[in-house]
Amino acid sequence: MTTSEPGNRAIWKGRAWDFMEQAGMLVVLAGLVIYCALSVEHFASWQNLGSVLLAVSTVGMVSCTMLFCLASGSFDLSVGTLLPCAGIVAGLVMGKLDTWGWFPRLAAGIGAGLGFGALVGFINGFVVAKCKINPLITTLATMQLVRGFGLVISNSTSVTAFDPHFTVLGLGAFPVVHAADGGLLFQMTVPVWVCLGCFLFFGLLLQWTTFGRDTLAVGGNEEAARLAGVPVDRVKIIIFTMQGVVTAIAGILLFARNQAVQQNSSQGFELQVIAACVLGGVSLTGGIGRMSFVIAGVFIMGVVENAMALKHVEDSYRYVVSGGILLAAVLFDRLKQRAS
Amino acid sequence: MGEELLRFEGVEKVFPGVRALGGVSFGVKGGEVHALLGENGAGKSTLLKILSGVYRPDGGRLLVQGQARRFGTTVEALAAGVAVIYQELHLVPQLSVAENLFLGHLPTAAGVIRRGELYARAAEQLRVVGETIPPGTPVGRLPIGQRQMIEIAKALTRGARVLAFDEPTSSLSAREIGKLFEVIRELRRQGAAILYVTHRMEEVFALCDSGTVLRDGRHVATYESLRGVTQEQIVKAMVGREIADVYGRREGRGAADGQEQLRPAALEAIGIEGKGLRAAADVRVGSGEIVGVFGLVGAGRSELLKLIYGGERKRAGRVKVDGQEVSISAPRGGIRAGIVLCPEDRKKEGIIPMGSVMENINLSARRRGAIGGVGIRPGWERQNAAQRVRELGVRTPTLRQQIRNLSGGNQQKVILGRWLSERVRVMLLDEPTRGIDVGAKSDIYNILYRLAESGVGVLFVSSDLPEVLGVADRVVVMREGRISGEFLRAEATPERVMAAALPVKEEAAVEGGSAV
């Protein structure tokens, strides 16, 4: 009717997009949880909450540092083979030192695993930042290198650890709530706590430190950031090194939980992590990212997988579904960019 | 001379906020080489892009062989017999010479390339431009001069009758230039209409029959014959506009009679050497002085600024700020020493496009506001950003607005605001007003004047001669990678400055032979 109407509509449209950009995927997650609670049997239960939390913890931890990687305009494929390999390194070192007391043995084993993760991450960062090699190629190469290294040192077999001082890292829990009949109702294990800690720590790091803001600036426009005095190379090297360390932490905790690790487990892990980030709205081209995005993406993936498991959907179909979700998320992202 | 093959009639082109071309009318006949002259930003490239179908004109007509044409793509232009040879050549380096020549219409039989025919026809085309390169050679292995010949041959295989050259000699050696001229003269003899864009006066007189001068997108003059026209006349037509009031006046600048030299130096750069410079450069900027660096694109001006700032690694040279020698190996070092740079290409080097105004302002200074240099203090950042926005008159709805939604002038003010949040002793600016409307230009000049009054040394690069003459206390001229002149404000006439900036071919050839 009036001439201002299209203008108003545009403003509202703009606000709607703003809102979607800020909170979009959290809203989707909330909707998904409500839907599953209403339509999937056993979904809305304390036991199930515990298992969802545990199921997403490994991807959750690594997604935190992958967020920094993607936000700075980089990419890391090597996490998929580093995850088991860090466990193998830790397990073998602990195995070799069986004459030591439990504490120094554990410290040495875990230290070796973390150190290995840091080394791989540092190499990735150094090659990407200083030698200006495309991160996709660099981490593809280190991914294979690490896989080969893991297979060689483990003789392509499974490495095990049964020391209760170590496995408590995967199995220890607090709080543990029992049901009236004595069965387990709800528990939060160490990996879940570490994952939540990562969400908090890296969320704060991104939002509230110069390093976090520098990360987004590098991803937004590397040359402008460099000329504005941001130490671009250092930022990249730190990001990749952090990524290596956190992946090693996740790998060691997973090893402790399973009491065994094999190099060729965790196939496609790197893609799960990247998918969770992108699903949440972290830009693949860099410059845009928030921890809330990552949390939403990780849990959407986790809830969907959990719901499918509860519905007894065959494994083979799960790939189809998660692939479809990711494709939809990427198309949505594209649509958002075109709108702005 | 033959019939008129090409005519522009009142051609206009408007970009958002800028009128790039207006009322350009001239014709080129078959068998004629027509020079297209003008400063950087005069509209020559825009005109060529209209000719080749990259842009569509917003007004006026383009006539090719007497017919009004409107090209939507370069393919359409080529089909009508119009080819533009750009400075960056459009060849595929991995493919062979023959494949490049016939790219898009390779001779095939049932989809399979007929190599024999391809090579034979390629060799024939190459003979036309006087080349005997084996047609199977990958283009990437050839020197730039030969690649240019292939580009010309490629245009001829498409039956081009109108050829436009965009500063074709800028990267050629003296011998290659000689050969290029022979080919162009041969094309003229065969009746092609040739439009030749150049900065080099001696080329105009050596090669061209007629010429047109553009300035600020306007048609200034067309010479039907260059006989009797002097270089001075052409230079005057290129630069001779009044220095408008845009530049304002600086309080207390005085007579600009050389007093600047006596001021204590804010910046002394001694013997700077590095990529893009062909001789060591010395620059001195007094405290409170504004020095303009003029030169053509590619003269090494941006490189000089980046070398001083630490944006590029310098091979040699020392930098002193307020008499203290500082060691700078990266931008952070420059900033710590009090040297800051507003880079040339705002989009590529200046802004973080998806970041907010606040984010872009605090990009560097937040390190000083943060707790322990690490922990962000949002209050400090908001206050700092709000203060700069107010101080510089940045027009933005909120501090949270993404910077890419602001106009060029406001983006530039944000970048200036980024540096005003630091302790600045020397401000380097590269084309600070390019693509900015007149109002915002005045604002930016006033910011520079205020900075200078507070004792900062200002060194700015510009391709806009009136701007340099209107704003600077002293003008440094660069040409082909070296400093070629220096003028105090009183001595800096457009003609003298332009003469120092324009390349001199003989000198370049001699120096090229001995020095490099």
Question: Explain this structure to me?
Answer:
The complex is a heterodimer of chains A (340) and B (516). Chain A is built from 13 helices and four strands. Chain A has 340 residues and is mainly alpha-helical. Chain A has one domain (28-334): ABC transporter involved in vitamin B12 uptake, BtuC, CATH 1.10.3470. In chain A, the strands form two sheets. A two-stranded antiparallel ribbon of chain A has the order 1-4. In chain A, a hairpin with a 5-residue loop joins strand 2 and strand 3 (184-189). The longest helix of chain A has 35 residues, at 5-39. Chain A is globular and about 70 Å long. Residues 1-7 of chain A have low confidence and may be disordered. In chain B, the strands form five sheets. In chain B, strands 6-9-10-3-11-12 form a six-stranded mixed beta sheet, sandwiched between helices. A six-stranded mixed beta sheet of chain B has the order 18-19-20-15-21-22, sandwiched between helices. The longest helix of chain B is centred in the middle third of the chain and has 16 residues, at 174-189. Chain B has two domains: 4-239, Rossmann fold; 246-514, Rossmann fold (3-Layer(aba) Sandwich), CATH 3.40.50. In chain B, helix 12 crosses helix 13 (378-392), helix 12 runs parallel beside helix 14 (408-420) and helix 13 (378-392) crosses helix 14 (408-420). Chain B has helices at 44-52, 74-79, 97-101, 115-128, 144-157, 174-189, 201-207, 231-239, 301-309, 331-337, 346-350, 357-369, 378-392, 408-420, 438-453, 465-471, 494-501, 505-514, and strands at 4-15, 18-29, 32-37, 59-64, 67-69, 82-85, 108-109, 112-113, 162-166, 193-197, 210-215, 218-223, 265-273, 281-286, 290-294, 316-321, 324-326, 339-342, 426-430, 457-462, 474-479, 482-488. Chain B has 516 residues and is of the alpha/beta class. Residues 506-516 of chain B have low confidence and may be disordered. Classes of the chains: A mainly alpha (340), B alpha/beta (516). The interface between A and B is medium-sized, with 23 and 30 residues.
